[in-house]
Amino acid sequence: MSEQAIRVLLVEDDDDDYFLVQDYFHELGAKHYVLDRVPTFDEAVLAFHECKHDLILLDYRLGSHNGLDLIGEAKRLGCVSPIIMLTGQDDPDVDRQALTAGASDYLVKDQLNAKLLDRSIRYALRQRRLEEEIRQANEQLEQRVAARTAELARLNATLLQEIAVRKEVEGALMEADHRKDEFLALLAHELRNPLAPLVTGLEVMHDLTGSSPEEEELRLVMARQVQQLVRLVDDLLDVSRISRGKLQVQRERISIHEVVAGAVDLCRPAMDAARHRFLSQLPSQELFVLGDRVRLMQVVGNLLINAAKYTPSQGEIELLVAPREGEVAIVVRDTGIGIPAEMLPRIFELFIQVDTDLQRAHGGLGIGLTLAKQLVEMHGGRIEVSSAGAGKGSEFSVFIPLSEELHQNVPALESLTTIPEFRVLIVDDNQPAAFLLHRLLQRLGQQVTVYESPLAAFAAVPNFKPQVVISDIAMPEMSGYALARQLRLLNLEPRPTLVALTGYGQDRDRAAAYEAGFDFHLTKPVSLVELQKLFVSIATNFGST
Ligand code: ADP
């Protein structure tokens, strides 16, 4: 394929020089080059305007102008053809100026020949092509960068918009969350108000004589339901305190045995209702922690109640307490419905409940474990859960740092030696509660016998000749009041001291106890210190009679 001829414009005022250059082009061949000539500056400017040549050969001297001016003109007119400067003499200054102004090359006329001219022209054209390619590539790159920048700007704008929307939603959510907390607090308070007279009303009904057994049974059902409501509302109150950072715990030195005794008391109705076998194992030594007795009872009580709730009836529930490397471990283990592995990590979250039939049957709000975790952590402890899966039982373990005074005795116990040993009869149908009381009394150096049945206890009195009888009040076979009355009727010598131990601490409960023949009235859960005070009083009475 034949190459197209290169169109060259020669700007030359000297005819001789023109002919010379023309000869060189003849020599190079017409099929390679077409030469046009303009002799003046102005004609050159006109030709640049059209810019139809592939290359310009420019004489340095052009009358009153010089070639450098024309290079400037070509640039101004946007003529992109490469320019080669022809100079008369070999002057390095002129050469440098020409190149700086934009010439592709410079050639000295008297050193010129056809070959040199051909090479210089081809080189300049190739150079220009490369420049053009680079320019185009650059332009494309710039276009791509511009497009990408525009795309980024668009994405950025969308992102900013999304952030703004998100911020707005987040603000609304926080506001809603805050309002929910406030609402929960208000709701709990509002619910509690009407509950108080209901509780009192039911208690008053209990004291009214003349009610039939059916009415009494009805009252008991209502009392139990109201208690359940009170518990739910109290949990709600607590949870609203947690979310508003208003939950507080006391910090005093308390006995874990007392905590556990209280917790066992709390879970007793749930354990009894489901006829579970409840086993507890406690260490012989007293363990002390710094904390809030009522709150820790609530924690352990909750775990025990859950164990009772989530274990089908006649299951087995174990409570294990043991010191372990500066902590006390309280473990509640059941043989119940267990917890699926995927639920274990979330079980302590607020309102989380495993969706099972048994779960639904028990209602509840999914607050207890959240509260337990929060309370344990407020005691510097931790709570853990494990379960081999659905139907395989669960195990909840609470660890609480022991008080540093672990190895010291309770100050109040220093005077233990001053309490003489009595024969003490405990009557309580709740086996774990009786067991704990037994343990506490042993610590006080008492000789203790436990009966879970009041009838059996009554039958054993003539032989055992108790000096002190500590009796629960609400028992299925025979109430504590009836037992006290029967004992008083026996006119025993020496006269035993009768102590009522009940969950009710109101004045009228005390009055009822004294009226039945009790000498003392203690409210559950009873602490070691209270028992110690009781026995100091009993000893004083015995001394004075
Ligand atoms: P609630 O018992 O009121 O639902 P909790 O916070 O005490 O609330 O318990 C949360 C959930 O954890 C329960 O709904 C139940 O699904 C599960 N759970 C708690 N204890 C046990 C347990 N001992 N065995 C099986 N599941 C349990």
Question: Helix and strand layout, with pairings?
Answer:
Layout (H helix, E strand, L loop, with lengths): L5 E6 L3 H14 L4 E6 L2 H10 L4 E5 L1 E2 L2 E2 H11 L5 E5 L4 H10 L3 E4 L5 H94 L5 H31 L8 E4 H18 L3 E5 L6 E4 L1 H17 L6 E9 L2 E8 L22 H6 L5 H11 L3 E6 L6 E8 L21 E5 L3 H13 L3 E5 L2 H11 L3 E5 L7 H10 L7 E6 L4 H10 L3 E4 L4 H17 L1
Parallel strand pairs: 1-2, 1-3, 3-6, 6-7, 9-11, 15-16, 15-17, 17-18, 18-19
Antiparallel strand pairs: 4-5, 8-10, 11-12, 12-14, 13-14
The structure holds adenosine-5'-diphosphate (ADP).
Question: What does this molecule look like?
Answer:
The chain has 545 residues and is α/β, with parallel strands linked by helices. The chain has 15 helices and 19 strands. It has helices at residues 15-28, 41-50, 67-77, 92-101, 114-207, 213-243, 256-273, 293-309, 357-362, 368-378, 431-443, 454-464, 480-489, 507-516, 528-544; strands at residues 6-11, 33-38, 55-59, 61-62, 65-66, 83-87, 105-108, 252-255, 277-281, 288-291, 316-324, 327-334, 382-387, 394-401, 423-427, 447-451, 468-472, 497-502, 520-523. The longest helix is centred in the first third of the chain and has 94 residues, at 114-207. The relative contact order is 0.06. Mean pLDDT is 87; it is low at 406-416. The structure holds adenosine-5'-diphosphate. Residues 302, 306-307, 310, 334, 336-339, 347, 352-354, 359, 364-370, 394 line the site of adenosine-5'-diphosphate.
Strand content: 15-25%
Distance between the termini: 142 Å
Number of helices: 15
Q: Detail the poorly predicted runs.
A: 406-416
- Summed over residues and divided by their number, the pLDDT gives a mean of 87
* Strand segment count: 19
> Roughly how much helix do the residues carry, as a percent range?
40-55%
> What would you call the structural class?
alpha/beta
What are the distinct ligands in this entry?
Answer: adenosine-5'-diphosphate
* Shape field: rod-shaped
Largest beta-sheet characterization: 5 strands, parallel
- Computed over alpha carbons, the radius of gyration is 52 Å
Strands of the largest sheet, in order across it? 2-1-3-6-7
